[in-house]
Amino acid sequence: MLFTIGLTALALASAAFAQTVVVVGSAPTSGGGIFQYAPNNFKATNGTVITFRFSGAPGNHTVTQSTFSDPCNPRPGGFDSGWVFIPASPPLSATPEWNLTITDDSKPIWFYCKQILPSFHCSSGMIGAINAPATGDNTFAAFQANAKAFKGTPNQGEGGLVGIGASASAPVGPVPSGAHLYTAAPLPISSTLSISSGKAASTVTAPPMTSLASTPATSAPAKGSGASALSTSSLVAFMAVAVGFVLA
Q1: Any residues with CB less than 8 A from the CB of 128 and at least 6 apart, and which?
Q2: What's the pLDDT tens digit per position in 87-104?
Q3: Where does the signal sequence lie (predicted)?
Q4: Could you count the other beta carbons within 10 Å of the beta carbon of residue 99?
Q5: Is residue 20 classed exposed, middle or buried when 0-12, 13-18 and 19+ CB atoms within 10 A define those classes?
Q6: What's the mean per-residue pLDDT of the chain?
Q7: Of the residues 112, 144, 191, 236, which has the fewest C-beta atoms closer than 10 A?
Q8: Contact 245/117 with Cβ under 8 angstroms?
């Protein structure tokens, strides 16, 4: 009896601390190139912590929730890591990470990188799925095909820490010297700037953006929205993100 109780407690403890590590980006010479998540298709039960590790150098990527039918545009109400810039050199003193906890494993969770330089990362294959069906119409392979066929420019609006089926309690961190985290206001459901998705037209606002300046690797990320004191216009912030990626 005590042995059975012990095994049950051990199983519950293991489930509570279940974790999956996803590497964001890679080296240009690696299999799959720089535009990838590894792994990009996996299962995760409720309570599982998905750690997105931004170690691809050079890199400037996001983890942004989307939908199966519109893979390269952010889902209103979805999660978003913000842009994480990793320089080619020198090596960082610590690796920026983002922890996402699964809150509803009954439905698939689709995500992508919304960076558009030097080419559209999403349609180049930088997409991922959690709990995608293995059979039927909405498989990961079908999601890949939708992303590859995407037309238009990926929307640059941003979601928040809490998404649909998964959520984070803190922004990306640590952000060591040389790295940068760029974030924006939450993506509104409706707005004024028309973006073509190649499917039904959608409208969103390009929100004001902020930059979380590099911080010592020993500093813990602030809880909450992750907004910093360094504010700038969406155009200036986006150009910093884009130019940073190209120069890397």
Answers
A1: 22, 37, 39, 40, 41, 63, 110, 111, 112
A2: 999 999 999 999 999 999
A3: 1-18
A4: 15
A5: middle
A6: 77
A7: 236
A8: yes
Burial class of residue 12 (count of CB atoms within 10 Å of its CB; 0-12, 13-18, 19+): exposed
H or E segment to which residue 5 belongs: helix 2-16
Q: Which of 8-17, 37-46, 79-88, 229-238 has the lowest mean pLDDT?
A: 229-238
Q: With beta carbons less than 8 A apart as the criterion, state whether 100 and 42 touch.
A: no
Report yes or no: 175 and 95 within 8 Å, Cβ to Cβ. Answer: no
Token pair belonging to 31: 């299999």
**Of 211, 229, 209, 207, nearest to 175 (Cα)?**
211
Q: Which two tokens stand for residue 15?
A: 């489930």
What distance in Å separates the CA atoms of residue 162 and residue 170, rounded to the nearest whole number?
Answer: 10
Residues 69, 198: Cα–Cα separation, whole Å: 11
Q: Which domains are assigned to the chain?
A: 17-247 (2.60.40.420)
Predicted TM-score of the model (pTM): 0.74
Q: Above 80 in pLDDT, residue 230? A: no
**Residue written as token pair 């049950």:** 8
Q: Which residue has the higher pLDDT, 186 or 129?
A: 129
* CA distance from start to end of the chain: 60
